[in-house]
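Handout, page 2. Input:
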Amino acid sequence: SQLLLLLPLFLAGACAQCPLPADLKTPNGTKICSQLYTDNSPYYDQCCGGSVLVVMSGEDQPYVPPAFNNKVSSLVVGQRCELTVWSGKAKTGKTRKFKPGAYPRLQEFKKGLFGNWDNSISAYFC
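Output:
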């Protein structure tokens, strides 16, 4: 059980390119709820790459912008935030909540019996 507590810390630290949850802020200091990225890598230090979708607190998107729909491969959730995602448009299909932390490789997170969350996000609320 102690290993489970340390695992998110290890993953957050292991992915050098993923920002820390505490660092999710706009240039003027406004807190960002989450950042979604189109690219990841087998190497944790090269995760959180590609195009970036910035999600502000309270943002409710039943339809992810086309450039990001079913293309998100890694994400970071800011402190005191929670990101809820859906696999289908209009908040249908499978759903998952991501707590504060870095999630560099969404294929490591199960979606149902056989799937995973890599390239599977079509709607979100933060």
